[in-house]
Design a protein that fits this description.
The N terminus is likely disordered. By secondary structure, the protein is mostly beta strands. It is built from no helices and 41 strands.
Length: 344
């Protein structure tokens, strides 16, 4: 049997042309810019006259007749690296800011035993001071100017005010103990979450339009908290105060504070004292003070407070708006009045 063999046609498919690139390798990438170099501080005294970042290399001791570090430039950052700078008799300040300077940052270290003050920067503004421990200094503890932030600092046993700040400054999470005055603040300041104890005069003294929140003030030899016109004092604990626990003047709010044992220095002092007008005194608890809540001004609103163990519990002049005072000692509340004040 014959077989017919048919030819098989082979189709050649045309492949696309391939063009080779350069055989030379590409240039190495440029290095990523790193942080600006920091300048070490290895001895005192030193003068910083240019912006930049500076750091301590070790604990440093000052010399008689000079301050430790002088800053005469804007935009300076100093990291103390956890080290102290230590004063000697006849020295100036630990750190001093010359003139008006903006954008400073000083942090993470200690300033001890400086005759001219720990950190003195009345011209420092728009700056940050954090995690500093200022102890045993004269003239000033930590003293800065306007519109700054002072955070997590400790002022201990300074013969001047522990922390002094200018207007518009926030002081947060600080401790001030056994100084001539705890915290001394200018107008418009915010003082939050601070512990102030055993200072020789007032605990916290603030000028007008200040806000004092969630602070603990105890064992002051003068007033506990003294705030100027238009201020708010709220959610604070004040105890063991020689004179008035909380004192405010005009246009203030005093809310939800606890005051115990104010007025130990003699008669006529109060747990809460209001000397001006147009204040709201609301939701406070005052115990075991000379006078509980005393209002000598007029046109104020006094509601929802409680007082016990004071003599008297409430001392409020006429021409104020006062929730009815109910004596509930040993009995039920007996009142549905949401605005009532209680003594017990």
């Amino acid at each position: 049997m014959l077989r017919t063999v048919l030819p098989v046609a082979t189709l050649a498919l045309a492949a696309p042309a391939v063009f080779a690139g350069s055989l030379d390798p590409p240039a190495a990438p440029q290095p990523t810019p790193g942080p600006e170099p920091r300048t070490p501080i290895s001895s005192l005294p030193v003068s910083i006259e240019a912006p930049g970042s500076y750091y301590l290399t070790a604990s440093l001791t000052g010399v008689t007749g000079s301050s430790g570090i002088e800053i005469s430039s804007d935009a300076v950052t100093i990291d103390l690296g956890g080290f102290p700078i230590i004063g000697v008799p006849g020295a100036g300040s630990g750190i001093v800011v010359e003139g008006t300077r903006n954008g400073l940052a000083v942090r993470n270290g200690a300033l001890r035993s400086w005759p001219g003050g720990g950190l003195v920067g009345t011209g420092a503004q728009g700056s940050q001071f954090a995690d500093l421990r200022v102890t045993g200094c004269s003239t000033a503890g930590l003293l800065v100017g306007n519109n700054n932030t002072v955070e997590s600092c400790v002022a201990l046993s300074n013969t001047a005010p522990g922390i002094t700040v200018g207007t518009g400054t926030t002081v947060i999470g600080c401790v001030s103990r056994s100084n001539s005055l705890g915290i001394d603040a200018g107008s418009g300041c915010v003082i939050v979450d601070c512990a102030v104890e055993a200072n020789f005069t007032a605990g916290i003294r603030a000028a007008q339009r200040a806000t004092v929140l969630r602070c603990s003030v105890s064992n002051s030899n003068s007033d506990g908290i003294n705030a100027g016109q238009g201020s708010t004092v709220a959610d604070c604990t004040v105890a063991g105060i020689v004179f008035d626990g909380i004192e405010v003047s005009t246009d203030c709010q005093v809310r939800n504070n606890t005051v115990d044992g104010a007025g130990s220095g003699g008669t006529g002092n109060a747990g809460i004292l209001v000397t001006g007008n147009d204040c709201r005194i609301d939701g406070n608890a005052v115990t075991d003070s000379d006078i509980g809540i005393q209002v000598t001004g007029t046109g104020n609103l006094i509601v929802r407070n409680s007082a016990s163990g004071n003599t008297p519990n409430f001392d409020i002049v006429a021409d104020n708006s006062t929730g009815t005072v109910f004596n509930v000692a040993g009995v039920g509340l007996g009142s549905a009045n949401a605005w009532a004040n209680f003594e017990f």
